[in-house]
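Input sequence (651 aa), recorded before submission:
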Amino acid sequence: MLSNFRAFAKSPAAAVLIALIVVSFAIFGIRDVFKGKVAGDSVITAGSRTVGSAEFKREFDVYKSRLEQQVRQPITMEQVAANGLDRRALEGLATREAFAEFLTKIGMHPSDKLIAAEIAKIPAFFDQVTGKFDKKSYAQKLGENGLTPARFESSIGDEIAQQQFGAGLAAGLRVPRAYTALAAIFGLENRDVGYFAVEPTSVPQPAMPTDDQLRAFMKENAAQLTRPEMRQITVVRFSPALVSANLPVTEAEVKKRFDFRKDTLSSPETRTVIQIPAKDAAAAQTIGQRLAKGDDAAQVARAAGVEAITYANKPQTAIADRKVAQAAFGMAAGQVAPVRGDLGVAVVKVLSISPGHPVTLEEVRPALEAEIRKDGAAEKVYALTQAYDDAHQAGSNLTQSAAKAGVPAVTLGPVSAEGRDGLGQPVPGLTQKLVETAFALPAGGESEVEDAGGGEYFAVRVEKIVPPALAALDEVRPQVTRVYMMRELAKRLQARADELAARVKKGESLDAVAASAGASVIHVPGLSRQNAAQNKDLSQELLGKTFNAKLGDVFTAENTHFGLLVAKLEGVRAGDGATQAQMAEGMRPQMSVAIFREIGESAQVAARHKIKVTADAAKARAALGLEPEPTAADAKANPSAKPAGKPGLAK
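Predicted structure, token format:
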């Protein structure tokens, strides 16, 4: 049904509608691409807007970071190039810029006052003492991120225009009831199905295969049965865990660390303190008198035209003004006093005092001993890596260098690039980085000492490379035989099920055919798309075919276990009218959102065509430090080179 909207978007009337559509389709977050770039540096040009190399690089870094969070692993620039992520980012950013330029051309731009009000709400720009927007903090934070106020305000203006206009359109958009009524009828339709099972015991069991049959089967499935490249490797590990257990800890070391850490290990005294800034001594006296009487601090502060600052159960170091902190921690509970601090005059009231707890040596001895062993292990590991590296640099191979450093060298494998052995099981002790390092080396190659993270290091040597090869029959005979037998049995089951289904199609009743096969028919009435998933006795294939069949259709489907079903659609009925009406009304918001998205997608495409956009893929790759893609001329001169393909829109 939504395809009608796509067709509408291509009509002349769509030009009027698209002028009223805006959605925040930004794939990069808040925009910080701005005008004023040198034409020769423009990666993207969309009307009056240009995106330079530096801006594109910054946008891409944000895009890449979000992708890494989604896949939960780092993405290398090689992977970026191989998967065309630079192209996706370029096209997505070009479309977004075209859309923003389109809004500018139709006069959509928020006022400076509205932009300033939105920026003033951002907590990152607040003064920590007053809790209010601070221009110095604003400029400092922007500078730390390579932005200027003008650039940032321009991006905020674009965001406000998109969000408010899009929200206005969405608030007034409601899908016609006819759409949701059709969806409700579709969703609540009831179907009756009858079926019986064709079990493996109902067909003759296949004979054991000959070696020729197994070899032919293996050839047919060579892709699945070919073993990947494997490598036999020798690994030297430098791990704190391997050396910390034997490290001695002396009483002198524990005592020295305790004396050094005593203050940080102890719980400091904390206080709840109210601080109210005062403009002068007279104001401080008035504030102090009211606080001493027990008046509400917030009301007292408002009366003085300021805001109260509350430090709830905080140590002395948490109070921003050093002189105020010293005074507050020298006062008694309930005491009120004016203080001239580094930031001006303030009235301080101490509400409560929580005494600190000085820690004893025995309380923290286990933790201190563990810290000392950890630090000692790190030092020992560093010394071992240095001894290994010195020997290796002097010409000794990996095994000889490990022996001179007193570290064991362990030979593993063969292992695959996924760190698995010949049976597909993970090899203990291998990390992804270690395996990647090993598979980047040639046969006989040795790595330098590599950082494995967590204070651990390793070095690896490739002893032997086993190229990909089809497994020998004797090595996989049991597994291949089992799969072969299952396949042959499945063929016989399907032939038997097709035979029984054909009899039902010719006019025999489902019950009669089932009885002749020694089975019983199970009738399932009232299946709907709403309740189908609750019936765990029905396979997904049976449910899918039931809702795609016509009344009276006969079909076969997989059972929930190894076996087949012969089924017939016995009834189709409309759902309850009252329930349909309720469901139709309840679906309107959801379907309205879906249509809004469809219109928004059409609006993006239309804006991209209306605004003449240029996106330079070569400059984009250069901005990211990637090599240029081969052109068609390069491909002609070098058949192994592939010309750049047409970029696709970022999703």
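Checked by second reader. Residues 1-39, 639-651 have pLDDT under 50 and may be disordered.
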